[in-house]
Amino acid sequence: MATYAYILLVLPLIAFAVQMFFGKRLPRGGDFVSIVAVLLTMAIALAMLAIMFVLYNPSFTLEHTFQWIDIGEFQVSLGLYLDNVTLIMLFVVALISSVVHVYSIGYMEGDPGYHRYFGFLSLFTFSMNGLVLSSGFFSIFIFWELVGLSSYLLIGFWYEKDSASDAGKKAFLVNRIGDVGMLIGIMLIWSVIGSFNFQHIFHAVENEALHGSLLSIAGIMVFMGAIGKSAQFPLHVWLPDAMEGPTPVSALIHAATMVAAGVYMTVRIFPILTVDAQLVIAYVGGFTALFAATIAVTQNDIKRVLAYSTVSQLGYMIMALGVGHYVAGFFHLVTHASFKALLFLGSGSVIHAMHHGLHKTGKDDLDPQDMRNMGGLRRKMPVTYVTFLIATLAISGIPFTSGFISKDAILSGSLAFALVNPQHFLLPVFGFGAAVLTAFYMFRQVFMTFHGKPVHEEAYSHVHESPQTMLVPLGILAMFSVFVFYVFPSINPFSSHGWFEALVIKPGSVAGERAAEMAENFEHALHGAHLPAMITSLVVASIGILLAYLFYLRKSLSADRWAKKLQPLYKLSFNKYYMDEIYDSGIVQPFLRACKSLAIFDMDWYDKIIIDGFAYVTRAISRVSRWVDDKIVDGLIVNGIGKIVLFTGSLVRIFQTGRLQQYLMMMLFGIIIIFAFLVF
Amino acid sequence: MNHLLVYLIIGAILFVLGLFTVISRRNAIAVLMGVELILNAANINFVAFAKFSSATLDGHIFGIFVIILAAAEAAVALAIVLNIYNNFRTINVDEASSLRG
Amino acid sequence: MLGQIIFYVFAGITVLSAGVVAFSRKLVYSVFALLFTFFGVAGLYVFLEADFLAAVQLLIYVGGVLVLLLFGIMLTNRVADINISQGNTNRIVGGIASLGMLGITLYILFDTPWNTIGEKVMPETVSTIGELLMTRWLLPFEAASVLLLAALIGAAMLARRSGEGEGA
Question: Is the Cβ of A665 closer than 8 Å to some Cβ of chain C?
Answer without folding.
Answer: yes
